[in-house]
Design a protein that fits this description.
The chain is α/β, with parallel strands linked by helices. It is built from 14 helices and ten strands. Strands 1, 2, 3, 4, 5, 6, 7, 8, 9 and 10 form a ten-stranded mixed β-sheet that branches.
Amino acid sequence: MKKLSKVALSVLGIMLFSIFLTGCGGGGEEKKDASEQGKAITLKVAHYFADEHPQNIALKEKFKPMVEAESNGQIKVEIYPNATLGSEEQFIDGTKNGSVEMCVTGGLIAKDLPMVGLTEMPLLFRDYAHAQKVLNGELGKEIVKGMEEKMGTRTLAWTANGFRVVSSSKPFEKFEDFKGFRLRIPNNPIYVEMVKGLGANAVPMPISETFTALEQKVIDGQENPYATLKASGMYEVQKYVVDTRHLFSPNLYMVNEKFWQGLDPKLQEIVQKAANESAAYEWKLLEENEQKDIEFLKKKGLTVVFPDETFKQKLIESQKPVQEWFYKTYPGTKEMADKVMAVQ
């Protein structure tokens, strides 16, 4: 029994020594990250846009090839469009907890960063040039300040969803047609207040469920930029589009902070550069294609209504209480809104 114990102890000693050598890299080398070991780092990007939307096109044509080429294959980018990884709320949570490395999101993160919600306040931005100048400047950085601490994520770049318009399955020509209109919106408080101002009935719903709801006439219409209306196919179950441009929807590239800090500085530089170029490309695509999208919808049989001055003025007046609600609900946003509106 004593001999057996000595043998057992000897074997145990060898095993422990082997484990020690393995833990130390076999020769005292520091532990290497995935990129140093030659293993590709997976960067999953989740969003809800359709395949042919400028958001997805920019990611496919700019972000993915740039990151993979300039990192020499150290980073592999996987793009998941069409809410493949769940609803926007779900992939936001995934990016926060690290199960998804990156996502394209928007105003829904206002529950964590109220200032981001300001960007979707009705009638805040005048046009694309104004929105781009604000969001790509110092104010854009100020709007997402504190994201790393509060959400465990960071913003790489601002992109654009576009100016939102209303589509309808029934005739819609004057402002009063909003009364009783069942309007699908994102599950976002500012949108609920916006719809109340219009006099319509708000129906919060994930975009992935909207086509079916329109088809089954559960709702009368929805509001989104022209690009989304076209790319999602929702025009197939709509007859009118009202060019309200009631609010501008920005998006942002949001990355998990722990993942980001796990990249060496060179890889961070590559990802950041690709994000900037992809975002710039997406802005360009979206704005340039807007008139083409309008013509496409007309060819598909939709009537595009451009509001007259009476309609526009009533729209402006309907949203003033909504703006005041926002300033009261989220202290400090009035000052930021004044800064945004002052940008020329």
